């Protein structure tokens, strides 16, 4: 009866592949922690298209988002260095959001996702 074993070389190769897969997943996980979720990419796209964007404008564009969720998502994007927030000393208060230099690096990615989504929609019609 023959044993079903793998050679030491095969085991090393599998370990290298697993390590590479884990490294790729870590990078993707890092990206998803910053831009993942239901609203963040939509917010970034809105800010990209109407820069600077005011809080009220963002709220109108995303009617299903709650005030608290919008505030939380914007704060997270600000903490991650993707957007910056500017508060004007006016009554009523005016707050504007724009992409930071780091956030601007996401523009080609967001554009590609929009293009892919349009192509996918057209494929389905």
TrEMBL record:
Q: Which of UniProt's keywords are assigned here?
A: DNA-binding, Transcription, Transcription regulation
One GO MF term: DNA binding
Q: So which domain of life are we looking at?
A: Bacteria
Outline the extent of the HTH hxlR-type domain. Answer: 26-125
Extract the Gene3D superfamilies matched here: Winged helix-like DNA-binding domain superfamily/Winged helix DNA-binding domain
Q: Which SUPFAM superfamilies match?
A: Winged helix' DNA-binding domain
One family name in Pfam for this protein: HxlR
Protein name per the record: Transcriptional regulator, HxlR family
| Organism encoding this protein | Chitinophaga jiangningensis
């Amino acid at each position: 009866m023959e044993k079903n074993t793998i050679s030491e070389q095969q085991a090393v190769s599998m370990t290298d592949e697993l390590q590479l897969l884990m490294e790729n997943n870590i990078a993707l996980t890092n990206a998803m922690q910053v831009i993942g979720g239901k609203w963040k990419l939509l917010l970034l796209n809105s800010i990209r298209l109407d820069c600077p964007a005011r809080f009220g404008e963002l709220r109108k564009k995303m009617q299903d988002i709650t005030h608290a969720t919008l505030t939380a998502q914007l704060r997270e994007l600000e903490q991650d260095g993707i957007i910056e927030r500017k508060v004007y000393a006016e009554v009523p208060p005016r707050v504007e959001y724009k992409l930071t230099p780091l956030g601007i690096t996401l523009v080609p990615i967001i554009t590609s996702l929009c293009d892919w989504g349009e192509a996918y929609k057209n494929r389905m019609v």
